[in-house]
Amino acid sequence: MADLLPPLKPIAIKERLSVLFIEKGNLDVLDGAFVVVDKTGVRTHIPVGGVACLMLEPGTRVSHAAAALAARAGTLLVWVGEAGVRLYSSGQPGGARADRLLYQAQLALDPVLRLKVVRKMYAVRFGEEPPARRSVDQLRGIEGARVREIYKRIAAKYGVEWKARNYDTSDWDKGDLPNRCLSAATACLYGVTEAAVLAAGYAPAVGFIHTGKPLSFVYDIADVYKFETVVPVAFRVAAKNHGNPEQAVRLGCRDIFRVTRMLERIIPDIETLLAAGEIKPPEPPEDAVLPAIPNPENIGDAGHRG
Description:
It is a single chain. The protein is built from nine helices and eight strands. By secondary structure, it is α/β, with parallel strands linked by helices. A hairpin with a 6-residue loop joins strand 7 and strand 8. The relative contact order is 0.14.
């Protein structure tokens, strides 16, 4: 009977559910598929290879079998804070393949292609085409001026006294309340963005506008969403003068990420931004290690399942 069925094949990444959050449960393997068991013993099955990325929130435990199955099926495991507002660690896929990374690097290393991508990032972020015949450095300066004006406008909207964006990472309490809220909010945004970048198989350090930092590309992508999502949250919290503003900001960011479905948007948006370089993404090499499905050969009697 088994010979009449087609062989199992991995599901293409583009056809998978992009991200699935798991919290307060044990991720294990049962009957060859992922299963989440909550504290009451209720089991929730997750189709093997049907998800590109599993986001493991606080309260999640992962078995060795689940980690091994994720590696074979090409599913990225990412350990995050609640709703992805922090990123603590991640597994290998899609960083296990280099085709997207090489595509990203080719765009970043060619000055002409890089400028095209930067101009697209500017257009998406501000809703208009950037001035013609400007270099990346010139566009970066124009962007900085516009960003300062946007900060002023949003601060005025929420009635917050605003001087300038200023913070000291070595002395968190030194900054004023609005800057502390903004730092907490952008940290949340960077966590969500880094998770998406890793899940898609790109390199966080290979940036276009930002360069020379471990998260340059994360900053590039996060800036596209910053003023739509986390900056209003930060100023809203600063205006109410909460007793624990950092916690209030994290909760606000968690909610806005869920409402705007951030993680579902980031990966397609990255592809759109990089497509502005107008070069064809490289095909994966023939010897590329693709997501694997467990060996179909049985190791026991008929009906045995490994």
